[in-house]
Every structure is written in C-alpha cells, then in structure tokens.
Amino acid sequence: MRKQDMCAIIDLNEPSAALAPLTDERPVGTMPFAGRYRLVDFPLSAISNADIRTVGIFLPKSSRSVEDHVRSGQAWDLDTITGGVFTFPYVATRDYDDPANVHRYYDNYLTFLIKSKSEYVFITGARNVSNIDVSALLHFHQASPNPITAVYRSVPTASANPEQEAFVLDADNEVTDFAASKDVAERKSNHTKPISMQMYLTRTDYLIELLSRVQNSGKFIRLPELIHQEITTAQANAFEYTGYCATVHDIPSYFQANMDMLDEEKFHSLLFSQRAIYTKNKNEAPTYFAPEADVLSSLLGTGGRVYGKLRDSVLFRNVYVDHDAQVLHSIVMQGSRIGNGAHVEYVIMDKGCVVGPDVQLVGTAEAPIVLKKGTTILDQSAAEEVLQS
C-alpha cells in the first residue's frame, strides 16, 4: 500500500464519566495500560503498522496529556515530511448552537481529509484495546461495492455487556442497524453477539461528500452519529476482528483489561503478535527487586523498587513497594508509594499516590477501590474516610 492510499482519524471525544476519577484530568485515550502503555497507543500502532502516515487526532476537552504523549508522533513513525500528526481542538457542547462553531467542527474534518490526498480513511476511537490489521480491513473493504465497512467482534452472549452497541446483521453479513446488545438477537450458530468496535473504513471522497452535505444543512451531528445514520440508510460491510479486544467503558472493565495482561496468552496476543505495539519511550533502569521481595504473576514498569510482596498486579514506572507491604490484584500507577506493612488488595492507585505504613485497603474484583491522582493516605483513619467518600 502506498503511503497516501489511506489516512486515519482518531476521535478522542469518548464518554468518560463512568471512569472517574481516573478521567478527571485525562481523557479515555491517555489512560495508562499494562505497565507502560496508554490506550491511544493501540490505534496509533495499528495505523503505523498499516503504513498510514497522515493522522488527524480530534482532541477532547482535556487535551494536555494527549499532546504530551503523542507529540510529533515519532514513536509511531509518523513524524514525516509528507503527512504527520494533525491535532484539532475540542468544540464544547454548549457551542453547538453557534453556527460558526458548527461550521468549524465540520471544517476541521473536511480540511484534514482534503489535504490528506488519500483514497480511503480509517476512523476509530481509543477505548477498544486491540491489535487490528488495518491493511486486511482495507483489502476486505475493496472487495465489496458497499461504501462503508464497520468492524465488530463476536462476544459470547453470556458475557456481552447488555448496553454495549451491537450490529444487526442480515443474511449477507451486512450491517443494517445498531442497537444495544440486549436488543440484538443471538447468532445461533455460535451463541454470540456482534459487538461494535466503533471502527470504520470508507472512501475519503465519500466522507467528504457526507460531511459537506450535513454542514450545508446547518445541523450539528457528531461524526460517530453521522456514520451511524449513514450505515442505517446505506449498505455497510461487517468485518470481524478475531484477536484480543477489551472495551474500556467503566472502572471494572478497565481493571479487568489490565488483569487480562497477566494471562500469558492474552498478553502475547495483544502486545507481541506480528504487529508491534509502540509507545513513547522512557529510558530508565529496570525495576529493582530486593532479595526479600516476593513477586508472582505481576507486570512491572521500569524504575521501581520492590521490597515487599506482589501477586497478580500491574505496576507502572517508578513505583516503590516497601518492606512487608502486600500488593494483591491491584493496579499501581507511576510514581506511587506503598509503605511498610501496608496491605493493598483490589485497588487502583492513580499517579503519585501514597499509602502509608500498615494501612489496609481492600476492595473487590467487581468494585475495586480507586484512589484519585495524588491521594495520600498516611493512616487507617484516613483510609476509612476515603472508603466512605
């Protein structure tokens, strides 16, 4: 594929309220994952692996962490003379009644698409953690006369989120509608439901015409909803993704996606397949494990120091676990510290948190305790206040 055959749009304006307080100061796309990654690394890597070199990132309200992480796109080989990473500012919901802002919303997309000089465009968000082969998606799309291809994954009916968006497929495996999973009939052949991954591929000129038509009408319809409307009126292909995928839509799903990376098969399927996952590099010393450290089934970033006990946990960069501390079934983000004799179980600690000596924090797999960024708990009474808040 020539490098200008396809461009990509990453829309980071994704619902984040159910992930608070982890999304109080960051969008879903920059949530940390698996000890060293951010969720946006996965669409960026898929784009890079497909030799796409022109990417438009449509920023959320809190965009600082996105720009700090992505920068020029060098980690994904996107800092090229032709093409590159282009960022577009957030348009607040309250401004949609202003015709000038509505015009600007569409104009940002149109300007990017026209200047890309590409034949096709891949559209995605960041909440679906996957390792999709975008080149295979393009070949699948080119083999059909339909204007849009939508990506789905087959999820066993028993484990499908009833509110998650699913496709209604016809006998030719084409998308005819969207609905909540609970309202979509099970496919009897394999007892699954086709869950949308909110990824689409279409011709660039087709999307330009679609956006121009809506812009000229004076209506405001966000791009994802616009594609939904188009799929229900035009025939759309359904492309099945069969690799590992986790949809991060709330705290339990985020917790489980990280815990999945402790499963060797899932870890290698996602991160070490034929298509590499790239991220911004941090050149640091490896984590130090003291002779008395007791570590099993855990994933650790660089630069940390471990003297205590770890079980089934994910630790990011520069985490300190003191003597006799126990960290079980937990996620501990960058720069956090766990004091001597502390017991942390089923807890998500955001960046820069401190748990003092002998403090006990115990949640559950279904409802892990979440400590917001910079939380300091020095004694058990402070821990009780956090648990009650």
UniProtKB/TrEMBL annotation:
Keywords: Glycogen biosynthesis. Residues 294-360 form the Glucose-1-phosphate adenylyltransferase/Bifunctional protein GlmU-like C-terminal hexapeptide domain. Residues 19-159 form the Nucleotidyl transferase domain. InterPro entries: ADP-Glc_PPase, GlgDAde_trans, GlmU/GlgC-like_hexapep, NTP_transferase_dom, Nucleotide-diphossugar_trans, Trimer_LpxA-like_sf. CDD domains: LbH_G1P_AT_C. One of its GO terms (molecular function) is glucose-1-phosphate adenylyltransferase activity. It holds the Pfam family Hexapep_GlmU. GO terms for biological process: glycogen biosynthetic process. The keyword Acetylation does not apply. NCBIfam families: glgD. Belongs to the bacterial/plant glucose-1-phosphate adenylyltransferase family. This is GlgC. It comes from Schleiferilactobacillus shenzhenensis LY-73. The gene is glgC.
